[in-house]
Amino acid sequence: MRFFIDTASFDNIKEISSWGIIEGVTTNPSLVSKENLSLQEIVKKITSIIDGPVSAEVIATDYDNMLKEARELHSIASNVVVKIPLIEDGLKAASTLKKEGIKTNLTLVFSVNQALLAAKAGATYVSPFVGRLDDIGVDGMKIAGDIVEAFDYYDLDSEVIAASIRNPAHVEEAIKRKCHVATVPYDVLKKMVEHPLTDIGIQKFLDDWNKKN
Ligand code: G3P
Prior knowledge:
The protein is of the alpha/beta class. It is 54% helix and 18% strand. The chain has helices spanning 10-17, 29-33, 39-49, 63-76, 88-100, 112-120, 130-135, 140-153, 168-176, 186-193, 196-212, and strands at residues 2-6, 22-26, 54-57, 80-85, 104-109, 125-128, 159-162, 181-184. The protein is globular and about 70 Å long.
């Protein structure tokens, strides 16, 4: 499973990419709004240090303006993936962008039906929001796993990004469900590194070493 980082913070991306484990970035309008730069400036900065796919989302919800924004975002850098909400105009825009060779990430996906439609429309990535499904009492990771199985069974090319990840347990479940990618927030990535036995182990090694040296 590949790891993307789910943030628009350049500092956070820079820090985590130094670990050598990040293969892409996803942003959304809420994440971009937390920063003091425009979407275009943020995408430019991120793509200057990340070679992998960088998802940037359209604000428009109608076909013509989605296409306009998508083409503008893609003109910033060739590794920009355009994030499009899973609505009727979004499907239409995704299928047009596929013909133009522009990669898309169909977002706000909450069901296997929506995911199948996205894949048929030519989405490069499909992002089920597992945390938001959990929030309403639906097993989000089960839906993500069902989508992976359906894509595999029907031999569809779209990749599943487990999104709206809230904790390290979500990431472990995404691995078990064979999601192609998990897009993980900064704080969850930091928590994934930590284990109390690692800290205790380091302390014990140092104590033993210092007794003899
Ligand atoms: O990648 C989608 C993600 O940013 C949404 O996460 O926590 O706002 O549901 P959340």
